[in-house]
Amino acid sequence: MAGGEGPRRALLRAANALLQQRRYHAALAVIKGFRNGAVYGAKIRAPHALVMTFLFKSGSLREKLKAIAQATYAHSRNLAYFVFTYKGLMAGQSRLQGKKIPFHSFLAACIGGWLVFGENNPINSQIIMYLLSRILFGLSRLAVEKGYIPQPKQDPFPLVAALVWGTVLWLFEYHRETLQPSLQSSMTYLYEDSEVWHDLSDFLLYNKRTDSK
């Protein structure tokens, strides 16, 4: 056992020494970006998939666990691939031009988005909508910061909240098919299932009765 400690420690020292080499920093950052993308994707998706699956999906326990695992894997994989692609393209552009410029980030992310998130599926759709809402807020703040639009005299957030909720409920009531399935399920639970009950059991204890009474 003691004989194995020497080679392991030597390998660990060699690996740590490699990680300190500045000439390999860009390549190593791409690898760690892949790792961080995979871990972050799993951390974000697993609890969300767990809650949404057990709240709104039917099926056996095995089917539900399989759906959670598949959603978590897809999110983790896609985010890992995207970070790997983005950082690799950033490093390549910087090396070719000798410096980093803002357009590099836009171009690398566009290519990564096309390659990794270009397929229209529930996971990718949710991620894109999540980003889109934050982009709109970010661009609004940037426009004020750069002076393209005047600084609001009052906080515009109450108006934004009113318009967002007004629009989404109008879409749900009259154009439901335009909304993402998971949002439809959430709103059905909140606004339609609350209209139906038979007795105290499905009024307070459960959302829907499962027996044939």
TrEMBL record:
Q: Pfam families, per this entry? A: Tim17 (PF02466)
Q: Where is the signal peptide?
A: none
Q: Which GO terms describe its cellular component?
A: peroxisomal membrane
Cited PANTHER family: PEROXISOMAL MEMBRANE PROTEIN 4
**Which InterPro entries does the record match to this protein?**
Pmp4
Please list the coiled coil stretches: none
Q: This protein is called what? A: PXMP4 protein
